[in-house]
Amino acid sequence: MDQVESDLKTQAEAEFDTEGLTVTCPDDVKVEAGTSFTCEASDASGATMVLTVTQKDDQGNVRWSVTGAST
Prior knowledge:
Helices cover 20% and strands 38% of the residues. It is an alpha+beta fold. It has one domain. A 4-stranded antiparallel β-sheet has the order 1-2-3-4, covered by helices on one side. The longest helix has 14 residues, at 2-15. The N and C termini lie far apart (26 Å).
């Protein structure tokens, strides 16, 4: 899950032209194609985004979208 968090951080920072995001995902996600889970990305100001992540395969490839945000 550490690699997924790192990848999401990099991709979200690029997508939203920002730096310093912290991404937290659950540790107990089963690696399986089609499985979805949510992660939280936050910045230093306390603003957060909920990321819904779907596994494309069992090799760590995922797609994600923002499904919630708060400031």
